[in-house]
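My main concern about presentation is that the manuscript never shows what a single data entry looks like. An entry of this sort, consisting of the sequence and the corresponding backbone structure tokens, reads as follows:
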Amino acid sequence: MRALKVLLVLVVVVGGLFVAADRVAVNLAEDKAAEKIRGSLALPADPEVSIKGFPFLTQVAGRSLDEVDTSLGDLKASADGHTLRVEKLKATFHDVRLSDDYSSIEKAASATATATLSYPDLTSASGANVQVAYGGQKDGQGQVKISPSFPLLSSLEVTGSVTAQGNTLRLRADSIPTMCRLLPGCADKVREQTDHEWKLDQLPSNLKLDKVTTGPGGVKITATGTDVKLPG
């Protein structure tokens, strides 16, 4: 009976030491991954990295991580001198393969990411004298309201949409009001203010924007991909 108690104590102690060592190892790996991602994406601060699954050490031994969650913070998309802030990009990577020397992450079998565009940021990125706001729903789809500026029209509003393709975000007016189309140069001037494209270059490779949901609190974008290369 005494021997059994001693054995149980040893098992508990060894198990506790293994868990402690496992947690230390995963924390070190998360810090190193955050450092590499920050450098490769030129981020202003280390992103948050969380490696899921237990035990971590056995995952490393098999050179495969079940799941890696990252919060990359705010990124920037730019075009024609205008920069659009993309808020709080978060990405989850599944079935992540490590390099032969365990020094870097090769790729993830699949990944999903989400981020948000605020209407003040869309306004700022659209240029001077342009306002972008939520425009309600039409046929079940969220719209944006764009208020451009034209000298002969004191109050001009158009409805539009935000879409995404590849790593490019697009803001477009659905149509130009008749009263504007009747004025020389008005349609072109308005399109210059309402129609924009911003390229998001900081996405991990093979992660592509594929869904946009427009709502009162902002524009939510999602991205998905397979065989995604993680930065760093």
